[in-house]
């Protein structure tokens, strides 16, 4: 059990791409919860699985998301945190700012606009001879759920190393270019060209370091309602939701997928079960054993029309993950099974099964039948995974609120902007 449990809770081995990523965070489920889910899937009790996951997801609603704000010293990390929180530098709870290095130790800040979120202002790199590796270890970067890399004036090698470390740890991370107001006031280029030059420089440096392009935001801490700040807040709100709910749900869904795959493998190897399903239906071309097998396998996996609260819509084709399968769905969903059930194959098996041969070819017929049952099990397992994933998503995810703008009324935005 311990060995199988370790396999179930191991991180995804998928490579990270721009379109399909799997991120890690501290918001994980306990081994006890994983074991309960695995046991319920093995028993074919999918409704119990949904209940367990639903309870687990409800406990995630108060999970505190930890966000690290880091970069080279003097890049304006503290000013950025104040702007993100819509407070001025002079307010009592503001992060201290200044020309010299003001943050000596990690400092935690909260904001009413981000409930259950900690913004950690980390000491900047570059003020000492400390290496990036020792900095990552001392700041315990791996304990954060999301990393915001702040840069200004230049995108240095340290920034690339921070981004590379975040990617290696499979953390969500952003690059935020601050002090855009100063860049615009001193540049001889038109605004559009300046913004394009900054973005291209960052992208080129990241590509040289073999880092995929992260979300990139160009902001001015003196204008917290302009430039890319609204988009940054919207993206941050969505990722907080993902860290709190979608990531742990995806992890639990992968646990379910692995358990279903294990069950699929066991059923495929269980020749005694398939032999029992074939006994009453001797003709090799008969489909009755497959119909009986489909019903049996779906019951073993726990998928019936009563398993989940939705029904199938009439679309003219099988909707995987929407209902228990009917026999006619099998042929539509797998061309290999269609080939095995075609007229030519049926005629061939009838000839082999003829009494003229005195059972000489029975071993071929039985092998063929077993292969058909394997395909049915494979299709049922695939439908079970899709059905369960949809049930978990529909039953456990709370409505995702899209944070438009800053979450403040227009008067509040103006007042906040005026304080910088």
UniProtKB/TrEMBL annotation:
<comment type="similarity">
    <text>Belongs to the TRAFAC class dynamin-like GTPase superfamily. IRG family.</text>
</comment>
<dbReference type="Pfam" id="PF05049">
    <property type="entry name" value="IIGP"/>
</dbReference>
<keyword id="KW-0342">GTP-binding</keyword>
<keyword id="KW-0812">Transmembrane</keyword>
<keyword id="KW-0547">Nucleotide-binding</keyword>
<feature type="domain" description="IRG-type G">
    <location>
        <begin position="63"/>
        <end position="239"/>
    </location>
</feature>
<dbReference type="InterPro" id="IPR027417">
    <property type="entry name" value="P-loop_NTPase"/>
</dbReference>
<keyword id="KW-0472">Membrane</keyword>
<dbReference type="InterPro" id="IPR007743">
    <property type="entry name" value="Immunity-related_GTPase-like"/>
</dbReference>
<keyword id="KW-1133">Transmembrane helix</keyword>
<dbReference type="InterPro" id="IPR030385">
    <property type="entry name" value="G_IRG_dom"/>
</dbReference>
<feature type="transmembrane region" description="Helical">
    <location>
        <begin position="337"/>
        <end position="358"/>
    </location>
</feature>
<protein>
    <submittedName>
        <fullName>Interferon gamma-induced GTPase</fullName>
    </submittedName>
</protein>
<dbReference type="InterPro" id="IPR051515">
    <property type="entry name" value="IRG"/>
</dbReference>
<keyword id="KW-0378">Hydrolase</keyword>
């Amino acid at each position: 059990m311990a060995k199988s449990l370790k396999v179930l809770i191991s991180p995804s081995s998928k490579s990270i791409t721009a379109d399909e990523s799997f991120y890690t965070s501290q918001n994980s489920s306990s081994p006890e919860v994983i074991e309960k889910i695995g046991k319920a899937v093995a028993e074919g009790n999918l409704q119990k699985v949904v209940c367990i996951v639903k309870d687990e997801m409800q406990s995630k609603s108060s999970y505190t998301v930890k966000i690290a704000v880091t970069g080279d010293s003097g890049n304006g990390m503290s000013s950025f945190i104040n702007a993100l929180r819509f407070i001025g530098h002079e307010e009592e709870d503001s992060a201290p700012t200044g020309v010299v290095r003001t943050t000596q130790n990690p400092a935690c800040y909260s904001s009413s606009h981000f409930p259950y979120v900690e913004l950690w202002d980390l000491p900047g790199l570059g003020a000492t001879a400390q290496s990036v590796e020792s900095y990552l270890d001392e700041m315990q970067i791996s304990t954060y759920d999301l990393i915001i890399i702040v840069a200004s004036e230049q995108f240095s090698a340290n920034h690339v190393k921070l981004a590379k470390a975040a990617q290696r740890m499979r953390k969500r991370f952003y690059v935020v270019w601050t002090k855009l107001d100063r860049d615009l006031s001193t540049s001889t280029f038109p605004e559009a060209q300046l913004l394009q030059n900054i973005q291209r420089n960052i992208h080129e440096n990241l590509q040289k370091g073999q880092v995929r392009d992260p979300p990139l935001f160009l902001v001015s801490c003196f204008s917290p309602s302009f430039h890319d700040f609204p988009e940054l807040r919207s993206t941050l709100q969505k990722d907080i939701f993902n860290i709190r709910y979608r990531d742990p749900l995806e992890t639990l869904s992968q646990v379910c997928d692995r358990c279903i795959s294990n069950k699929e493998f066991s059923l495929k190897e269980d020749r005694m079960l398939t032999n029992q399903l074939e006994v009453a239906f001797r003709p090799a071309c008969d489909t009755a054993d497959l119909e009986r097998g489909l019903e049996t396998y779906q019951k073993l996996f726990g998928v019936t029309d009563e398993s989940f609260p939705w029904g199938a819509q009439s679309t003219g084709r099988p909707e995987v993950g929407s209902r228990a399968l009917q026999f006619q769905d099998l042929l539509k969903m797998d061309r290999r099974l269609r080939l095995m059930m075609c007229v030519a194959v049926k005629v061939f098996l009838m000839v082999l099964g003829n009494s003229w041969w005195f059972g000489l070819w029975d071993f071929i017929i039985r092998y063929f039948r077993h292969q058909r049952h394997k395909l049915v099990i494979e299709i049922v397992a695939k439908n079970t995974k899709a059905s369960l994933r949809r049930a978990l998503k529909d039953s456990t995810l709370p409505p995702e609120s899209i944070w438009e703008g800053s979450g403040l009324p227009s008067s509040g935005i103006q007042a906040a902007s005026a304080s910088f």
